[in-house]
Design a protein that fits this description.
Layout lengths: L2 H4 L7 H10 L13 H12 L17 H4 L3 H9 L23 H12 L30 E4 L3 E3 L11 E3 L6 E9 L6 E9 L2 H7 L6 E8 L7 E2 L4 E5 L4 E8 L7 E3 L2 E6 L8 E2 L1 E5 L5 E2 L6 E8 L4 E9 L4 E9 L6 E7 L10 E9 L4 E8 L15 E2 L10 E8 L2 H6 L4
Parallel strand pairs: 8-12
Antiparallel strand pairs: 1-11, 2-10, 3-9, 4-7, 4-8, 4-11, 5-6, 5-9, 13-22, 14-21, 15-20, 16-19, 16-22, 17-18, 17-20
The structure holds heme C (HEC).
The site of heme C (HEC) has 19 residues, from α5.
Amino acid sequence: MTPSQMIRVPFGAAFALALAVSTLAANDDAVPEHPTFSRDVLPIMQRSCQTCHRPNMFTPMSLLTYDEVRPWARAIKQRVEARIMPPWFADRTVGVYRDDPSLSETEIATVARWVDQGAPRGNATDAPPPLEWPAVDTWYHGEEPDLVITSPPVVVPPNSTETFPEPELPTGLTEDRYIKWIQVMPGESQVVHHVLIYAVMGGADAEDTGGGPRRVRELLANRARGDFAGDYFEDGYARLLRKDDLIRFQLHYLPDDEQSFVDQTRVGIKLYPKGYVPEYVVTTKAVSNRDLIIPPGDANVRSDAYFTLREPARIISFQPHMHYRGKGMTLEAIRPSDGQPELLSDVNRFAWDWQPTYVYETPLTLPAGTVMHVTAYHDNSAANRVNPDPTAAVGWGDRTIDEMNIGWLDYFYIPEDEFAALQPE
Ligand code: HEC
């Protein structure tokens, strides 16, 4: 790797450069001469693979033990070197993310060398103790939720086409309440590809505004494959759930090759006590531009969307949402003081069937008047292997064969004095 490949300098993103240095390039001295499974590879599997590759998950194999991993050694090397596994598509040199499972160059080189040397087990006493994973069907945060809303049963026959049912259900709340945590629990995770949970205006509000997407108040939760903990808010932080809101499930079913399933997915919501008023109310903004025009065959179609922060704010996370033709998405902040765009995230290898949320290690603090700039890139060429029809002109729409260019931002506003206190010297 040459230095110019390593350090991709975006316009004005000096801070990204500073972060870049530590994560770049394999440090060859750090790659063991004779890596073993027990000492060198298992710790990597525990951190970056086993969340998904364990029994009863939606993955083709478990990677908990040597005997389970060994037959997959070649495939593991290939997927890891291509950065297909673990599924994580943000440039590692831009931004610092919580629970980032992606592998460093040194880790990738370690796995590759281990495979090239015959994938030896090594000394069992070098191995870290096995991790204890929560059962697939437990509420992650240890207690029972106050509300459990269950989607109606859906039959998913083998070898059928993908379906996207969107049932809406009432919460039964009689007053507005604040959410402490929210977790989606698929019934049959083999066929539940992802689930989005929205709060949708019910009651009188709904009559005012009519049907369709405008009724969506907020994205409450989003479960991509491998993300089973849901959203948990520290005391003082919460999401609002209004009493008349309906819960809309947006379920994406990807049928199995052989087996039929009947899924009922649940969403569990733990509420703060009645009367609790949080200091900060977290909301989600869809930064998008519906004037999306994607000509046939075009491999790099750019679209831009903007959202201005009314007050000083802290940004918790960024999640790009596009469909088959999605290729990449960046998030920039343009501060009112200097008007210089600062690159916050660069999801440059977007893959439509994985849509992780990129949670910043520390929420980003931005002044009032900052413009959040989302740039989406779509590939409508035949070279895009998942493109269903490179001859079609494509615009905004709900179906996966239509397109979207949403950058979801989770954020909350803070008072000016708190903003001032958070500024570096
Ligand atoms: C977020 C969940 C998730 C994580 C984390 C993850 N995988 Fe996977 N992996 C999958 C799924 C789902 C598949 C099957 C579908 C596919 O290939 O996309 C898969 C497929 C694979 C395959 C191909 C299997 C085949 O059938 O050929 C390999 C090899 C693999 N993973 C290795 C790894 C390794 C090594 C890691 C960690 C460095 C890892 N995965 C992390 C979900 C995950």
